[in-house]
Amino acid sequence: MQFIRQKQQVAVCPQCDNIVRIDAEVCNICGKRLRAGNGKAAPNVPPTPLTTPLPAQTLQDLAASLTTQEDTEEEEYEEDEEGYDEEEEISIQEEAPPLPATPAEILQTLQQLQEQAAKMEQYFPADMPDKAQKLSSWRKQLQRASTCAELFDCPQLQHIESQQLLKLRLHLAEAAQALDYTREYTVKVIGHAGAGKSTLLAAMVGRDIFPRMAGGAVTGVKTRIRLCNENEPEEMRVHFLTRAAFADALKQTQQSIQQAGNSRQRDMLAGELSILLKASEAYADRYLREEPLIEIIPRQAWKDDSNRYIEEPARDSKEPHLIRLIDFVEYIVHATPHSLLPPGSVLVDLPGGSAGQIRHDAILREELNDVDAIILVIGNNRFGDDDRTQRIFEQVKHKVLQHRSPEIAAQMVFLAVTHWDEITSAASMEKALGSLRSLLRDLPANYSTLHRHGPNNDYFFYPLRSLDALFATLGAEKQTLDDDRLQEGRDYVGRVLSVYPELLQIDPKLPKTANAQDFQKVSVKQHEAMLRFSGLPSLMHDLQCFLTSNRYEVQLRQAETQIAMALQHLEDLCWEHLNTQGIHSRDLDELQQEMHLRKSKRGAIRFELLQRRTSEMHIAWGEALKQFDAVISSENNAFHHAQVMAHERAAQRIKLRIMQGHFDHFIKVNNRIQGDSPAMEIGRRWVDIDGWNLIKELRFSFSAALERELNEPARTLAEAFLMPIAYKEEIDGTLDITRISLGEVGGELDEIAKNYNKLKRSIRDKARDICLYVSMAELLNEEKYAPTKDAPAVSSLYRLVSSQDRPEEIIQQARQLMGPILDVICGNLAQCTERRIAHLFRYELDKLETRQVYDADRLDTLPTSVPGAFSDLINSLYSLLTERVLTSEALRQQLDQLQAQREADVDRWVELLGDTETLRVAYRQS
């Protein structure tokens, strides 16, 4: 179904109309900051795909946007009066942006375009100024983009950071998309039901081919009309959904029903689901396939058989809706001289919007995501004061206009008012104009300035006599009318006679009088004058000029800009990589001189290389600290979990000892037995509780148990830093002493390696010491962790003094009441100490690089920074290696080999820089 088709995620700059990625922060032409969700989609028919499509809007969003329903007129369904707010929209979850194509794929696309460049002119039919020069510029940009694609496919670029490479590919992919002159340009015709869209389309293509749907029937599917060359066959193709796409539509509808915000939505979605299920049961086996089925309808059967594929069945129809299985219908018709638009153009007829149909509104919303031009059609029965017309204009404003610059937006929308000939009085004219002016609030502010139409150029819309335009076109093409058009043809002849004075002003060469009584008797010249009088040629001319100039000015400008941005980014990447190699020049000549000087100073370069290798250890250590911070600062990290578990295990260990009776001696009860002297009766109920000593013992026991359990949190805390260190030793090699030393061993180098391992062990010990110190210090706080007699848990224990139970029962109750006292002692200890432990451990790690030392006894003396244990180790390693260079031939050879590899790598980047500069200069000179 149309409302689940997928779209590519691109956006349009509102300042300059540049096409950019949906996730772009700023426009790469004008620098304007962008918002996500702009509506322009990437070209839809490239020779090879340049991006991966992403899913579109959900059904629930579409259902929630339906507004108050109205009564229908003759050409529409009967509407329900009940409605709900359009604001009840569900946010759309977008997937990750698509990846651009690889340079090899882009190069293949550009080569295909170059192969067709000899026939490029047929894609630019309008006679524009400097047409030959602009086509030549287009071919040069194709060649330039191909050369860029070859540069971007070089080996050294395959090893740079992925995000930087993606940025290069993105610029190149967008340039290739802009240079794709073969893609279809689509003109989408939208409007309310009964506005006369089909009649206008028939007049535009010069063919009366569309089905005459009866009664209140309306178009229910997207209908494409593609103009083809004379050597192509005329066909009507019905494109059915795939089995997977239809199943996805069912699933989305079911999910939307469950998530619907009110009963209105649920009822409408449930009705749609019922229609889908019924259609599936009746037609799925025949029409749904793994690959889309395309059914071809012969030319002679278009009007008779096409209704079942296009017409939306009535609401009360019990028959299965075949159109629910149809993706779209496409007419392929020959372009005629009076169709005005060239072969390859596509006109899209969309179902009437805001008519209370979920499917129709979904199709409209989806199609507004990808437009080159829009013809907004308004009939004289739905002017600007009609709610449905206003809602359609609001959708166009939201989806198409508000994310584009006013100049581009105002040019790409063509407002056409059909049945203008039915407005015959001054009162009706004033009413119509006043109603139409209210629609300007949803159009760009400069729309009325840029659009001057009508006989006197005083309307901001195209006043059309669409039915007259259709018959005039058919007559000029000398086509015969179908039987169901004969009466309308006679009516047309009457209108020709009634406006004949106006036709004489248009073409003074016409006969002074006209007396034709039959359609076939009207001359071709009279038909052509009537066509001009209908207002349609003005609309078609403006539309053609806009589409052609849009290719010249917007696409070519975008391609030039994207290629320039790609070359600039490539140059920046080259210099950035060279800077990492210690080369800071920004001039190619100076760079080459510097390379020659470096080759003549091998000895000094050896020491620079050693310094660079040891300095990288500082960088790797800092990166490990950043990873540690990221892990520890995350919620529910491993250290947090281990800390909580350690406290719980310590508490459980003490509670087990409580139940085993290890603390029973703090509860003293008399143990009189049966048969004792009656004189002892007075002491039979005596119970004594030593609460304070019990609490002290519980705290002491919990401290001992916690000290044992803190080994696991301490290990987890240390590994949060030592694991990144281990990765950089084993994988990166940036903290591997042996690799840094290029295999040099023996003597003080072995001692440095031992000190490094001892340093890592000290980190584990430090983590345990900090865990113990902070936890035990916190537990010493008697105000927080030593409950008094007034505490509820302790008071419950003391109430046993007045208990009348047997001694063994009192002891058992006391054991149960000791558990809550222990819980008070444990308290919030784990949560209170976690952050402090982590911060203190991080402080100790910082001291391994730099620590503060006070050298004097005076209090006002500032501390000095001295190297920590890790920094001392690196300094010692560098000093030792510089001494080894003088005595070890093997070390000198390895350093020279590394330098030679580095110089070769630099040479490749310098060559790439030269090619980039050559390509840029050559274009400027041309």
Outline of the structure:
This is Dynamin N-terminal domain-containing protein. This protein is α/β, with parallel strands linked by helices.
> How are the strands ordered across the major sheet?
7-6-9-5-10-3-11-12-13
Structural class: alpha/beta
Helix content: 40-55%
What is the assembly state of the chains in this entry? single chain
Q: Mean pLDDT, as a whole number?
A: 78
Number of helices: 32
Proportion of residues in β-strands:
5-15%
Shape: flat
Question: How many runs of DSSP E, i.e. beta strands?
Answer: 17
The biggest sheet amounts to:
9 strands, mixed
- The poorly predicted ranges are 1-10, 15-19, 35-97, 673-683
Rg computed from alpha carbons, rounded to a whole number of angstroms: 41 Å
Pfam families: Dynamin_N (PF00350)
Region (Disordered): 67-88
InterPro entries: Dynamin_N (IPR045063), P-loop_NTPase (IPR027417)
Biased composition (Acidic residues): 70-88
3D architecture notes:
It is built from 32 helices and 17 strands. Mean pLDDT is 78; it is low at 1-10, 15-19, 35-97 and 673-683. β1 (10-12) and β2 form a beta hairpin. The protein starts with 9 loop residues before the first strand and ends with a helix. The radius of gyration is 41 Å and the shape is flat. Strands 7-6-9-5-10-3-11-12-13 form a nine-stranded mixed beta sheet. Strands 1-2 form a two-stranded antiparallel sheet. The protein has a domain at 621-886. The longest helix has 45 residues, at 536-580. It is α/β, with parallel strands linked by helices and 926 residues long.
